[in-house]
Amino acid sequence: MGVAHIHSQSGGTLVHGNIKSLNIFLNSQRYGCVPDLGLAKLMSPVVPPVIRTAGYRALEVADFRKVSQASDIYSFGVLLLELLTGKSPVHATSSDEVIHLVRWVHSVVYEEWTGEVFNIELLRYPNIEEEMVTMLQIGMSCVEEET
């Protein structure tokens, strides 16, 4: 809801530009909050927000300095995948192989091993699998490449 609110402001031209797990918190009423709005524009032009947030850059954003509502949506999708898997957006294996979360999730789901995607800690909650699959579908929709 926070991202949708941001995108509805200023005639639909406002973007966050730095959506990631470190920028989401719960307030005292347990509502998710998206802080850091507007700080992306104040950051040094040498290090634009889409570069600072490795793994969160939308694939269709050709200009590394340009953030958009589409890049915010992509970042939100990565955030959902991060929550569901318990994995970082980009991480290295013990053999120094770099794993990109979005590509990994796509490959696992494509091979129809969807159950392998989810963080084992989440599966201890009863009757949660259906909701997790729905969240996975939402996350994957957010990170789809525009064609």
Automatic annotation (TrEMBL):
The keyword Transferase applies. Residues 1-147 form the Protein kinase domain. Keywords: Kinase, Receptor, Transferase. It holds the Pfam family Pkinase. One of its GO terms (molecular function) is kinase activity. InterPro entries: At_inactive_RLKs, Kinase-like_dom_sf, Prot_kinase_dom. This is Inactive receptor kinase. The lineage of its organism: Eukaryota, Viridiplantae, Streptophyta, Embryophyta, Tracheophyta.
